């Protein structure tokens, strides 16, 4: 596991918190496709994800324009529709400006 290499602040974080349904129908494949598509977009800085009942994915972006481009991406729009129809009981998306970050790593 590795953390996203976001670089200097400020930047933006999109926090997607979700509860899944029992339907899997292409979810993992779509997730891989979306990750590949996001990585190719200008302004994408990285992402981190965890799931244990509630899923949390945080993607990091250089600016609000990059986030808007991702939200409007054709592949992402299709996945959003499938998510609402099949994969999610509920979700919340939050967009935040990261003013400061710091880290620790045991030697």
Automatic annotation (TrEMBL):
InterPro entries noted in UniProt: Dimeric_a/b-barrel, Jasmonate_Hydroxylase-like
Q: Does the keyword Zinc-finger apply?
A: no
**GO MF terms, alphabetically ordered:** monooxygenase activity
Q: What SUPFAM superfamilies does UniProt report for this protein, alphabetically?
A: Dimeric alpha+beta barrel
Q: Which UniProt keywords apply?
A: Monooxygenase, Oxidoreductase
Spell out the protein name for this chain: Antibiotic biosynthesis monooxygenase
Presence of keyword 4Fe-4S: no
Please give the organism: Trinickia soli
């Amino acid at each position: 596991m590795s953390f996203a290499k976001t670089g200097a602040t400020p930047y933006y974080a999109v926090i997607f918190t979700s509860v899944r349904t029992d339907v899997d129908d292409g979810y993992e494949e779509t997730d891989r496709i979306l990750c590949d598509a996001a990585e190719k977009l200008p302004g994408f800085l990285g992402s981190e994800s965890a799931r244990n009942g509630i899923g949390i994915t945080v993607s990091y972006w250089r600016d609000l324009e990059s986030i808007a481009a991702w939200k409007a991406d054709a592949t992402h729009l299709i996945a959003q529709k499938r998510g609402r129809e099949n994969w999610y009981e509920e979700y919340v998306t939050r967009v935040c400006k990261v003013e400061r970050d710091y880290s620790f790593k045991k030697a």
